[in-house]
Amino acid sequence: MALLPTSNPLLLAIGTMLASLLQILDSTIANVAIPHMQSTLGATSDEISWVLTSYIVAVAVAMPITGWLADRVGSRRLFIFSVAGFVLSSMLCGMAQNVTQMVLFRALQGATGAFISPLSQAAMVDTNKPSRQSQMMAVWGMGIMVGPILGPILGGWLTENWNWRAVFYVNVPLGAVSLAILAAELPSRPILRRRFDLTGFALIAVLLTSVQLLLDRGNHVDWFESAEIWLYAWLAVSCLWMAAIHFTTAKEPLFNRLLFADPNFLFAMIFSLIMGVVMFATMALLPPMVQHLFGYSVIQTGETMMPRGVGTLITMQLSGIIVRKGFDPRLLIAMGFAICGFSLWEMSGWSLATDRSHIAWSGFIQGIGMGMVFIPMNASAFSTLAPHLRTDGSSLLNLARSIGSSIGISVVITMLSRNLQISHSDLAGKITASFSSILDFSTIDRFQSLGETALRVIDAEVNRQAAMIAYIDDFYMMMWMSFAVVPLTIFMSKADLRAKVVAPSNDAADLPH
Q1: Which residues contact 505 (CB under 8 A, 6 or more apart)?
Q2: Of 214, 273, 215, 232, which Cα lies nearest the Cα of 399?
Q3: Which of 218, 356, 418, 495 is 20 to 30 A distant from 372 in Cα terms?
Q4: Are residues 401 and 452 in the same domain?
Q5: Which DSSP state fits 260?
Q6: Are 190 and 202 in the same domain?
Q7: Taking a C-beta distance cutoff of 8 angstroms, is the pair 369, 337 a contact?
Q8: Is the pTM of this model over 0.70?
Q9: Among 8-22, 78-92, 121-135, 319-333, where is mean pLDDT lowest?
């Protein structure tokens, strides 16, 4: 029997998944519309970057209090208010007339939408009987994994065929459908009047804000050459050690200490962090790579990226079935990360002559690996958690993945920029008078404009080759990161998931009072 029975679990799953998919899509869908947004709003490149930064920071700050708010106002009420606020703020983003309004509305969108992912994950578990929970986790995971793939494609299509405002307006009708389903079907956990840890929240909020701003602003201000970045680093380090002391000594900390005493949950957080790095960083690299270096259109990019989502969907369903049969989830997690590492090894062998089928096939393999990790990882994390810890646990897992994506994107973009300059310098240094038997560089001045054109063509090709080398360096880094995670799975305890994903209980003592 489900912990929170509902009259129509399938309909509720549709409404829950729709809300979750919209929130995940919005983390990437606006990226491709930024250049159009910048010209319409009359913003500088530095100002327009805050449209993305404000959303990410707001999500990071709001997500840790999901568990407390759900206990305080009720999980049903918080979920419905969160979806309603997300839809309203999406509409306001589409109506923004200047960059200040856009930044404020995006922050509101992030703050209201931050609760959707953890609440939807907890709802999918709580409203289904134990035998169906792994299947529901697979369905929920599809939106989480496929959303970042569809975001840039859908955003590009809407921007090209309509305008950038449609990227936000598309949330309104779909969000309204989700809202109606949730209002009709969503049950609520009992309300628990637990004390709010203001000190803990303040420390976590400043820590996460500082880290996010450091990562998002670093590339714009040349990292530690700027006093701004040193300030963020100082705040992050200071809040980190103060938060560590506070959470180990406080009587009622923001997060229940039992969460961190569970090795399965603790390692699941580490794996979520790494998954965020590998998955989102790869998704940030591939679309601009295939468009700028290979000349693909938005539609061709979408078609090339789609097999990654297909691979994810296949193995998510299969892994859900496999764990119910008693297969060791630790082995699935290790195999998944190993497959991801193999796909990145293949990607590190790409060149400018690589065809679309090879790119699509590598993405399909990586999707298989990611899908293989997701369900066993979440199943193992929740298998030993008491029911009243699920919402807090879900918010922390989602937060770890969000932080991982921010770190991953920032690191790979920074490495890409710096390695491109290094590779360009190395390649240009090898172009000498003896480089070409057709063009004599020592007498190129005689050709005047034709000579200048020839040099520009050569420089453009050097740039392409240098960029390809820089992308390969990023793939190598993520490959080793994926392989390094594999041995960590032995530190998890084996969870028996043949009948359940989480430890079910009908005992009222398990519920918060």
Answers
A1: 3, 386, 387
A2: 273
A3: 356
A4: no
A5: T
A6: no
A7: yes
A8: yes
A9: 121-135
pLDDT band at residue 398, thresholds of 50, 70 and 90?
Answer: confident
The answer to whether the beta carbons of residues 486 and 334 sit under 8 Å apart is yes
Q: Which two tokens stand for residue 8?
A: 């129509």
Q: Which two tokens stand for residue 463?
A: 């740039």
- Which distant-in-sequence residues (6+ apart) come within 8 Å of 322 by Cβ? 332
Same domain, 178 and 239: no
pLDDT of residue 454: 61
pLDDT tens profile 452-466: 666 677 777 888 889
- Decide: 270 and 488 in contact? Cβ < 8 Å: yes
What whole-number distance in Å separates Cα of residue 235 and Cα of residue 242?
11
Rounded Cα–Cα distance for residues 396 and 262 (Å): 13
Residues 39 and 76 in one domain: yes
> d(Cα 204, Cα 208) in Å, to the nearest integer?
6
- pLDDT, tens digit, 9 for 90 and up, residues 66-85: 888 888 888 888 999 999 99
Mark whether 387 and 480 lie in a shared domain: yes
Please give the tally of structural domains in the chain. 4
- Decide if 282 is inside a domain: yes
Alpha helices by DSSP H, listed for 129-170, are 130-161, 166-169
> Token pair of 271, please?
């794996």
Residue 394, Cβ density class (10 Å: 0-12 exposed, 13-18 middle, ≥19 buried): buried
- The label of the residue with tokens 């990611």 reads 370
| 98 & 34 share domain | yes
CB 475 within 8 A of CB 301: no
The domain in which residue 276 lies consists of: 258-412+474-500
Q: Are residues 301 and 394 in the same domain?
A: yes
Q: At what angle do helices 390-429 and 263-292 cross, to 10 degrees?
A: 40
Query: 3-state SS string over 56-115?
Result: HHHHHHHHHHHHHHHHHHCHHHHHHHHHHHHHHHHHHHHHCCCHHHHHHHHHHHHHHHCC
Same domain membership, residue 445 and residue 359: no
Q: Is residue 412 packed enough to be buried (19+ CB in 10 Å), middle (13-18) or exposed (0-12)?
A: buried
